[in-house]
Amino acid sequence: MTAGKIMASMLVLVAVLAGFAVWYLQVHGFYEEVDELTGAQQIVVTRPDGTTHPVAIQGFKAIDATSSPIRYRACFTLDPAEAADAAPYPDATPLNGPGWFQCYSSKALTADLEAGNAKAILGQSEVHPDVDRVLIVYPDGRAFAWHQINDKTPARGVMD
């Protein structure tokens, strides 16, 4: 084997390993499961007047990552009447989650929002700076949550 073939083989191997590392870190590496009890206790809904109230949650499953404030995804059930007085979230955009977190599908959530089969509400404003927790609630009590960047940040370069 010539030196050129060895060098080319090494470059291909390094590229494959780097590609695998990037894929793994994006899809699996930084996510952690959220503790069921703690996570369920953190679910609140916000009324139009800005006050929040907790809701009883069942079957809570969630993932989050410290690497980004918008990696949070959750699936659970609740009594829809407990969220009936919640503030609507008009610009809800379900964010993609990792494929292995099977209870959450941004495509299905988006389609159901557009068809009016579910409603988006404000769970908690500013759960992180410039990030809201958005909930989607179905009439049968199924609910999903994610963190979404809000537009409350003033435009750069604009003077008050």
Description:
By secondary structure, the chain is of the alpha+beta class. Helices cover 27% and strands 29% of the residues. It has a 6-stranded antiparallel beta sheet with strand order 1-4-5-8-7-6. Strands 2-3 form a two-stranded antiparallel ribbon. The longest helix is centred in the first third of the chain and has 27 residues, at 3-29. The model is unreliable at 155-160 (pLDDT under 50).
Main sheet record: 6 strands, antiparallel
Uncertain regions spanning at least 5 consecutive residues: 155-160
Shape assignment: elongated
Strand order of the largest sheet: 1-4-5-8-7-6
Rg (C-alpha, Å): 20 Å
Order of helices and strands: HEHEEEEHEEE
Mean pLDDT: 88
Judged by helices, strands and strand pairing, the structural class is alpha+beta
Helical content, roughly? Answer: 25-40%
The end-to-end distance, rounded to whole angstroms, is 69 Å
* Beta-strand content bin: 25-35%
Q: How many H/I helices?
A: 3
Total beta-strand segments:
8
Annotate the secondary structure layout:
Elements: H1 3-29, E1 32-33, H2 36-41, E2 44-46, E3 52-54, E4 57-64, E5 73-78, H3 106-115, E6 119-128, E7 131-137, E8 142-149
Antiparallel strand pairs: 1-4, 2-3, 4-5, 5-8, 6-7, 7-8
Offer a concise description of the structure.
By secondary structure, this protein is α+β, with helices and mostly antiparallel strands.
